[in-house]
Amino acid sequence: MRSAGRRRTAALLLVPLVTALALLVPSFDADGPDARTMGPALSSDAAFTHPGVLVDRDQLDALREHVTAGRQPWLKAYLAMRDSVYGSYRYRAEPHETVVCPAGDLRGRGCAEERADALAAYTQALLFTVTGERRHAEKARQIMDAWSATLRRHTGEKAALQAGWTGSVWARAAEIVRHTPGAGWPAARVRGFEDMLRTVHLPQVTSSDPDFTGTWDLVATDAVISVAVFLEDRRAFDHALERFRERVPAYFYLEEDGPVPLTVPGSGVDGPQRMASYWFGQTTYRDGVSQETCRSFRHVGASLAATAHIAETAWHQGVDLYGGSEDRLAAALALHARHELGERAPEWLCGGRVERNLGPHLEVALHHLEERRGRPVPAAHELAARARPAGTDDLFTAWETLTHAGAPAG
């Protein structure tokens, strides 16, 4: 399989001028070694790169090299992953035919089990990458095969969010196992897993609502692009690109947007009162503020992670989504990391009271900004360094110090 680190799109897509202007993405030198498609879709003659969901072959090779050489922080990150509940050889899947996820914090039925099992499959896939031990691949396959043979539907008010959290992680695990020599996943079982993602997860996460909170929509879009790559589904892939380009500018504010935030096309958020309510009481808009800053930093962290996951997966497929979003990501990382580190919130920001808990969500965005672009984000860098190795949020983010800290630029 071709690595995203070696694969490059030969030239920019030719797109109509109106479409190009709407993309909010700076142009690249098409003759340069890092030229990527900037149009609204994947080129019709471009092959999907595998593995290419969040991580590519160069990144997987690099993390294995770091760990086997005993380098930090990768060795510490690997040991934390290996010794987690998800890394156990004795891990047992608990598949459900119907996963019921109600609103709020109610437990539901099968929700926590599916999330845990997806993370376990991904963990075992990464362990197989590092160690080459076949039993890790077998464990990942056992978990995925158990769910694909059982799961038929997600229901409840949070069904789409559940499908988003798990769809992205299932696809990450499946990409690695399917496209790593020696994993031994039979073709018939692969097709069964494809069917599960196509018929159970994808319908939930492709139905969009412009008035969703940003976290919900970005998590769903992360799942769409991840599943699309695994299935080689161009229509779903292009759908994810479009949703990203609509949602991200409406979620992370920059002063260049004007006196009030942008909105997703078709949104019912209009007028100052509805805008303030949608932004959880925030009425002063400055660089880096997000739609959910005054809800909780935990939601902002998840949105930063999902945004970076989507852009990173697109990057591995030769499409640059980062370009039009780097200023927003950098501003949001800088603002929230400063306050996460203890800086007092000013009165204009959430009335001077913020709920801190960004979580293990910074590594992918930092990797792109600092290591690809050479763009320092000091507060976020300090916060990530203090928290390393980043573990898992038990939802859809896992082991990103291992996979992305110091990863090849690609």
From TrEMBL:
**Record keyword Disulfide bond present:** no
* This protein's name: Alginate lyase domain-containing protein
GO MF annotation list = lyase activity
Question: Is the keyword Lyase in the record?
Answer: yes
Q: Which domain of life is it from?
A: Bacteria
Q: Which InterPro entries match?
A: Alginate_lyase_dom (IPR008397), Chondroitin_lyas (IPR008929)
Q: Provide this UniProt record's keywords sorted from A to Z.
A: Lyase, Signal
What GO CC terms are in its UniProt record?
A: periplasmic space
All residue ranges annotated as the Alginate lyase domain in the record = 116-248
Would you indicate the residue range of the signal peptide?
A: 1-30
